[in-house]
Design brief:
The protein is mainly alpha-helical. The protein is built from nine helices and five strands; from the N terminus they run H-H-H-E-E-E-E-E-H-H-H-H-H-H. The N and C termini lie far apart (about 60 Å). It is elongated. The longest helix is centred in the last third of the chain and has 37 residues. Helices cover about 60% and strands about 5% of the residues. The strands form two sheets. Strands 1-3-2 form a three-stranded antiparallel beta sheet, with no helix packed on it. A two-stranded antiparallel sheet has the order 4-5.
Length: about 240
Amino acid sequence: MAPWALLRPGVLVRTGHTVLTWGITLVLFLHDTALRQWEEQGELLMPLTFLLLVLGSLLLYLAVSLMDPGYVNVLPQPQQPLRARHCRECRRCVRRYDHHCPWMENCVGERNHPLFVAYLALQLVVLLWGLYLAWSGLRFFRPWGLWLRSSGLLFATFLLLSLFSLVASLLLASHLYLVASNATTWEFISSHRIAYLRQRPGNPFDRGLTRNLAHFFCGWPSGSWETLWAEDEEGSSQDV
């Protein structure tokens, strides 16, 4: 492997995420937080659980960022599949394209979208727990210069976790809404630009909350998007 291959954006982003994850975890253990107090009291269940959750969120992140999001080779076909879109960053066509995630340097599509939602949920749990732990270690006192030297890093970690928690909460809420209605981020934002959505009002892929969730997480009921679209078109014509 050429040396410059190690400097690709994907490698840098994933390395940065991994370093930041374990760096924040180390800060929470080194300061006088609830984690350290549990450890000193011999109560290891909670610290070990927190570490396992951190590790699980990191593994899910790497899985989503490294796996095939649903690339499709459109060369033998006259047109690309329904709900697919060509990603400029990846330079590939992705089935049920949702968006390109710069934090993962990968597309979110048909294959990795369920894992992406699971990652957001687990990451939010870790972030909120970490936020509580950081707050538990903060002791405000004067002079402020002395406090800043002793607790400045932990306070910066608290602010960073607050920001990440807000972002993760908004992302998880928006994706759960989209999953419940069987829509994608791309379709929600650009419905006026997508031909198969301009042809009729509403979402032609929405089959109700239960069936939408079952299809998204379990792949049931199975069937192509073209079939669902045709069924919706047939139902619309019968109503007319």
